[in-house]
Amino acid sequence: DLRFPELLRYPSREGAQIAFYIAEWPTSRLNHWRSLLQARAIENDIFIVACNGTGHDGNTEYAGHSMVINPNGDILDELNREEDT
């Protein structure tokens, strides 16, 4: 879970160099999505590949913005809200 930093701490201490997050974060919390991913990369010195849902399910609009982040917290690549391949 992205909101719990200690969950990633253990794999990174054991030598993991990349972590994957798959989520359905809503548009209303897009800034949280981006900030928390960057924080996890920085505090664990690890690459992050994050895939977030996009579109609308009738109740919630999902933010999209899947991204790749380096251990310095720099966003290396980011998609937008549209479906993409």
Describe the structure.
It is a single chain. The chain is of the alpha+beta class. 27% of the residues lie in helices and 29% in strands. The protein has 2 helices and 6 strands, in the order αβαβββββ. It has a 4-stranded mixed sheet, with helices on one face. Strands 3-4 form a two-stranded antiparallel sheet. A hairpin with a 4-residue loop joins β3 (54-56) and β4 (61-63). The protein is elongated, with a radius of gyration of 13 Å. 22% of the residues are buried. The model has no long low-confidence stretch (mean pLDDT 93).
Strands of the widest sheet, in order across it, are 1-2-5-6
The overall strand count is: 6
Which residues sit in consecutive blocks of at least 5 with pLDDT less than 50? none
- Note the total helix count: 2
**Overall pLDDT:** 93
Question: What's the shape?
Answer: elongated
Distance between the termini: 25 Å
The amount of helix comes to 25-40%
Strand residues, percent? 25-35%
Give the SSE order as H and E letters: HEHEEEEE
Helix/strand-derived category reads alpha+beta
Rg over CA atoms: 13 Å
Largest sheet: 4 strands, mixed
